[in-house]
């Protein structure tokens, strides 16, 4: 086998150390992913994710996975080693940034998926096989070595008494002088685990918090635990970043030089792949931790950077959007003499977004004119000099802003509510309304003048720090103010103590006006995201159940039973509980099983669960014959919602197989494959409403 090379497009697949079989596999899903990467361009992946509405497709194909490495300061002179490259979630980003990328992965099928999705990348080589077998043949001149979601499995790579230290030492030996190591990993004390998310690798509640009492090869670490391992391996330059909400779908990256502020961490519903508890409001607890300087201990993920720390101290990604609006915002920090220099930058993340960046500078000029004699300062924006050149380089096209210290208007308003000082709240709101009303008759409007985009500095000046969504049209100040208060209330239930009617009265807004403004807001959000579903919408489409404190009694054995598949047998006397049984398998969403029935029966009834649900019937086979819904052989009591998809607005869903219409043998085989998503009652009520409007019959 040594020396065996396959070429997939421009990608080299090195099978010299491949043992001949894959020792881990996700089954049919990998076959589907391989088919997609072979036959579809990457530009089609968002559509496929939306259509499939399944966690594995989102996890493996989403472009947002690249965010965790996209910010790294690499250039085409550099070589990168990616250990545990899997299906290539970040390989593409590394290939675009670096001159040469070497991948290592144990699975041939996953490596094929990686190769086909990046087959136009001529700088990528993928080694397939066990890392310990491949490692001796790897060079020792890499500028970057990336371990993204890999370090926690070191016990599986390395057989020793100190596998994590030994693994890191082996990895470190392959750096060139001055080379960097990047490790992304879950925090064993991540707040989401305390709040009721299952441990990412084991799928069990609180296992990392309890220090993995059931053993296994996976281990995650605290911040101090990671730093200690690095220091024991001889690293002196150790920096910790904090990806949020986690490293998998990172939208923000914080550092000790720029930690999150109260109110910033509001995207915490991480129940894509598993059901979860909701023991408390994570946003409010994060705010408490931030105020108490404890955020680093409870960050959901860490990014350990070994080597000289980059100038980048903060990144915010806004790429869950239409291509023309995909950008990132970064904070850089450098030292000039005895002075620390901080600078905010906005960079385009697509060719189309370059024009969007240019418009931000234009917005600065127009807004500065509008508010020249007003009480709002527009944070100075400068076009990068290289942006103006004819040969605009992708990495050099950006705008810069002055970095300001202070409190956002949102923080000040929240402080008023915490003190129950509604009078001060309304005083600040009235001041806000007065300031944004300056020359509202002019045809230039910052549509996104929400409270978090206004910073009040120590000298009392009000600064607009983000004016990305500025349009050359006249918009009444009351509409802008309504949007600001609307967004403010949506983000935090504690803000509901506000009397919205009083605010609407102050603005002179009728309920009809408010309804129209809400429609405009939905239209604006669709404008930003284009025709794509936002990540929040995708989460709603594929999310697993969330159980709050009031629902905890449901998590008893009786509740577990509600989630089980129940089979009823009609042997001539109809269906009854006595003639039924539960499948013992611990199903998540995918429910596939094979049963053997001896002798004759009139009917079989399959209850996919005992709850409101949506079921995608992939296949039902009786004695090797595929049975389709709608004929004499099979019926359901659900509402058709697509090909093979049924919505059950009853807690007693059933799929009935009429065996009198089918051939029966002495030994009969039933094979079923279906995808089941349980629904909450609120969703069911909405579904009934849409059913009345004919939604499910289109």
Task: Give an overview of the whole structure.
By secondary structure, the protein is an alpha+beta fold. It has 3 domains: 5-188 and 214-255 and 298-311, Vaccinia Virus protein VP39 (Rossmann fold); 322-531, Transferase(Phosphotransferase), domain 1, CATH 1.10.510; 556-697, no CATH class. 30% of the residues lie in helices and 26% in strands. The protein has 23 helices and 34 strands. A hairpin with a 2-residue loop joins strand 13 and strand 14. Helix 1 packs parallel to helix 6, helix 16 (409-418) packs antiparallel against helix 17 and helix 18 packs across helix 20 (511-529). It is globular and about 90 Å long. It starts with a strand and ends in a 6-residue tail after the last helix. Residues 388-394 and 689-698 have low confidence and may be disordered.
What number is the mean pLDDT? 90
Number of helices: 23
Helix content: 25-40%
CATH H-tier superfamily of the largest domain: Vaccinia Virus protein VP39
User: Compute the gyration radius: what is it?
Assistant: 28 Å
CATH class of the largest domain: Alpha Beta
The CATH topology of the largest domain turns out to be Rossmann fold
> What shape does the CA trace take?
globular
Q: How many beta-strand runs?
A: 34
User: If strands are numbered along the chain, what order do they take across the biggest sheet?
Assistant: 1-2-5-4-3-6-7-11-8-9-12-13-14-17-16
Largest sheet: 15 strands, mixed
């Amino acid at each position: 086998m040594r020396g065996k090379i396959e070429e997939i497009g421009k990608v080299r697949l090195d099978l010299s150390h491949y043992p001949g079989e894959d020792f881990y596999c996700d089954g049919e899903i990998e076959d589907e992913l391989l088919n997609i990467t072979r036959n579809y361009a990457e530009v089609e992946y968002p559509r496929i994710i939306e259509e499939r509405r399944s966690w594995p497709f989102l996890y493996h194909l989403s472009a947002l996975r690249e965010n965790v490495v996209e910010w790294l300061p690499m250039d085409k002179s550099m070589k990168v080693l990616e250990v545990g490259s899997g299906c290539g979630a970040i390989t593409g980003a590394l290939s675009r940034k670096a001159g040469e990328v070497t991948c290592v992965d144990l699975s041939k099928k996953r490596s094929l998926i990686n190769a086909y999705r990046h087959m136009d990348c001529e700088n990528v080589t993928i080694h397939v096989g066990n890392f310990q077998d491949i490692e001796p043949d790897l060079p020792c001149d890499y500028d970057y070595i990336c371990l993204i979601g890999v370090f926690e499995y070191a016990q599986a790579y390395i057989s020793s008494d100190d596998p994590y230290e030994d693994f890191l030492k082996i990895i470190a030996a392959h750096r060139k002088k001055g080379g960097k190591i990047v490790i992304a990993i879950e925090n064993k004390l991540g707040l989401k685990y305390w709040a009721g998310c299952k441990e990412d690798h084991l799928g069990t509640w609180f296992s990392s918090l309890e220090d993995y009492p059931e053993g296994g090869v996976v281990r995650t670490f605290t911040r101090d635990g990671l730093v200690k391992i690095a220091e024991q391996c001889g690293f002196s330059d150790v920096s910790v970043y904090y990806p949020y909400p986690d490293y998998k779908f990172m939208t923000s990256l914080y550092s000790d030089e720029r930690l999150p502020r109260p109110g910033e961490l509001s995207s915490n519903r991480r129940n894509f792949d598993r059901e979860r508890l909701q023991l408390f409001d994570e946003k409010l607890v994060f705010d408490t931790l931030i105020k108490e300087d404890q955020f680093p201990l409870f960050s959901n993920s860490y990014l350990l950077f070994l080597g000289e720390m980059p100038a980048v101290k903060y990144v915010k990604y806004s790429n869950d959007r239409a291509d023309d609006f995909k950008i990132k915002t970064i904070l850089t920090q450098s030292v000039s003499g005895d002075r620390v220099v901080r600078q905010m930058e906005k960079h385009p993340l697509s060719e189309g977004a370059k024009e969007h960046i240019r418009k931000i500078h234009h917005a600065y000029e127009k807004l500065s004119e509008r508010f020249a004699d007003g009480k709002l300062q527009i944070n100075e924006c400068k076009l990068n000099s290289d942006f103006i050149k004819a040969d605009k380089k992708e990495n050099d096209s950006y705008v810069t802003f002055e970095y300001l210290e202070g409190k956002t208007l949102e923080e000040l308003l929240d402080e008023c509510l915490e003190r129950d000082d509604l009078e001060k709240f309304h005083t600040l709101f009235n001041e806000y309304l007065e300031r944004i009303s300056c020359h509202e008759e002019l045809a230039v409007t910052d549509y996104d003048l929400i409270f978090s985009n206004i910073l009040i500095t120590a000298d009392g000046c009000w600064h607009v720090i983000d004016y990305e969504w500025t349009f050359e049209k006249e918009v009444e100040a009351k509409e802008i103010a309504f949007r600001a208060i609307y967004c403010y209330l949506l983000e935090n239930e504690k803000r509901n103590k506000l009397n919205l009617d009083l605010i609407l009265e102050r603005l002179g807004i009728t309920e009809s006006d408010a309804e129209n403004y809400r429609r405009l807001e939905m239209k604006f959000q669709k404008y930003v995201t284009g025709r794509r579903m936002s990540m929040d919408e995708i989460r709603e489409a594929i999310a697993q159940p969330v159980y709050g404190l009031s629902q905890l009694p449901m998590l008893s054995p009786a509740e577990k039973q509600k989630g089980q598949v129940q089979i009823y047998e009609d042997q001539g006397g109809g269906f009854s509980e006595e003639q039924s049984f539960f499948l013992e398998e611990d199903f998540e969403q995918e429910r596939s099983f094979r049963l053997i029935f001896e002798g004759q029966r009139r009917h079989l009834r399959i209850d996919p669960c005992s709850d409101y649900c949506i079921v995608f019937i992939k296949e039902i086979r009786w004695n090797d014959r595929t049975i389709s819904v709608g004929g004499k052989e099979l019926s359901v009591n659900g509402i058709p919602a697509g090909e093979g998809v049924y919505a059950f607005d009853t807690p007693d869903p059933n799929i009935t197989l009429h065996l009198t219409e089918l051939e029966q043998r002495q030994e009969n085989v039933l094979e079923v494959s279906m995808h089941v998503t349980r629904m909450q009652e609120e969703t069911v009520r909405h579904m009934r409403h849409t059913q009345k409007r004919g939604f499910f019959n289109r």
